[in-house]
Amino acid sequence: MDVIYGRNAILEALRGRRRVRKVIFADNIKRGGPVAEIESTALAKGVQVQVLPRSNVDGMARGTNHQGVIAEAAPYPYAGLEDIVERARESRENPLILLLDTLQDPQNFGSLLRSCEAVGVHGVVLPEHRSVEVTPAVCHVSAGACEHMLIARVTNLARAIEDLKKLGVWVAGLEGLPGAQLHIEFDYTAPVAVVVGSEGYGLSRLTREKCDALIRIPMRGRINSLNAAVAGSVVLYEAWRQRYGA
């Protein structure tokens, strides 16, 4: 079982696809506001609610900022690539998908998931090896957004890109190369998958070669790159602006 912590993460887990077994409150927590909402949602879902001494909760949460409440839940339910495409089809929208090329920082991953959920991304794809995965820390950083996002883990990201291209999805790799197209000039109204690379090295050579286009975010300052989560979010919000005039 995963031990999920943080009030938003737990509330969204109760509302999402994951099976939550138990919600545990510290005995000294105030039971109003968000805490009362967590309790009522858990009871409505038939989830066991327990109150334990604060010291017990601290020990179970392993030094995390749990805010007085934790939950025991089944491991995160990953989806398949086909589930993501089907979600876009059911919504009658062109797919908007985020691909992560060996991103490894849970903070960046959680922040990107939060942006994805906010702008209506249909799903996220990441490789099984040398890559971040959905952990309780990611759930916390994403404020529970991961519970509503379809996330697929694939054995070969390059092959997943090929599969998407066969389905008519254009693949744009985010890369700070001088010859890359400005991100605001790319057409996101078509079926699109945006690829964000790793924190230190960007896109791998094979991934870069598989992309239909490379896009870059213009920068005026003295540093040469943005944080991966910030850069990915900038592009996703541009996609939302183009699609819906947001």
Structure explained in plain terms:
By secondary structure, this protein is an alpha/beta fold. The chain has two domains: 2-73, Ribosomal protein L30/S12 (60s Ribosomal Protein L30, Chain: A); 81-244, 3-Layer(aba) Sandwich (Alpha/beta knot), CATH 3.40.1280. Helices cover 37% and strands 21% of the residues. It is built from nine helices and eleven strands. The protein has helices at 7-15, 33-44, 54-61, 81-90, 106-119, 136-141, 157-166, 205-210, 228-244; strands at residues 2-5, 20-26, 48-52, 69-73, 96-100, 123-127, 151-154, 170-174, 181-182, 192-196, 213-216. Strands 7-6-5-10-8-11-9 form a seven-stranded parallel β-sheet, sandwiched between helices. α1 packs parallel to α2 and α5 (106-119) runs parallel beside α9. The radius of gyration is 19 Å and the shape is elongated. The termini are far apart. The mean pLDDT is 93.
